[in-house]
Write a structure and sequence with these properties.
Layout lengths: L23 E5 L8 E3 H10 L3 E6 L6 E5 L1 H18 L5 E6 L5 H16 L3 E7 L8 H14 L4 E10 L2 E8 L4
Parallel strand pairs: 1-4, 5-6
Antiparallel strand pairs: 1-2, 3-4, 6-8, 7-8
């Protein structure tokens, strides 16, 4: 019973041994003769006989599910699994495209093609119109440009955030459409 020696906080990890305060538990695992529901005293005795810990792995079940394992080894494996999952998690990249309020057709099409490629690759696209000096007076022109941009990209992505003016920049975010 190694895990019960240490001071344990609720948010630190799963409960083990005497910290499990329910009348009966379902015991599973390799070193259990029969996987069934046992009174807590009997489950603790089984763990003690094997010189291991009774660790609560599914506390929300009725009755809670426990496993007889080495507590420190179990914590290490949980941390390792969490680290692997974090490393394998999909990292979404955001590509930025900058427009002016008076962007001409060729530049618009050029940036539109880039945006299509970014969305096909699974990246998000943040398009923004940057207003210099007095060009802020043409903010509705910038909004029209961004809305047209979103409409042109409808088959590749969907607008996650509609045009929003933040200081001298009006921006919107377009997320790729998930393929099934």
């Amino acid at each position: 019973m190694k895990g019960s020696d240490k001071f344990h906080k609720e948010d630190e990890g799963p409960r083990c041994n005497e910290q499990i305060r329910v009348p009966e538990v379902r015991v599973v695992g390799d070193n259990v003769p029969e996987q069934k529901i046992y009174p807590i005293a009997q489950a603790l005795k089984m763990a003690q006989d094997l010189e291991l810990d009774l660790v609560e792995i599914v506390p929300n079940a009725t009755p809670p599910v426990c496993r007889i394992v080495d507590y420190q080894k179990y914590l290490y494996q949980q941390k390792k699994k969490a680290k692997e999952m974090k490393a394998n998690a999909a990292k979404t990249e955001i590509k930025e495209l900058r427009f002016g309020p008076n962007t001409d057709e060729h530049d618009f099409q050029f940036k539109l093609n880039h945006a299509k490629n970014f969305l096909k690759d699974g990246c998000k696209v943040k398009a923004f119109v940057y207003f210099k000096g007095r060009s802020i007076l043409f903010s509705e022109q910038g909004e029209k440009l961004l809305l047209r941009f979103a409409v042109e990209l409808e088959e590749f992505g969907k607008a996650e955030k509609m045009p929003l003016l933040e200081g001298k920049r009006m921006s919107m975010i377009i997320a790729p459409i998930k393929k099934k």
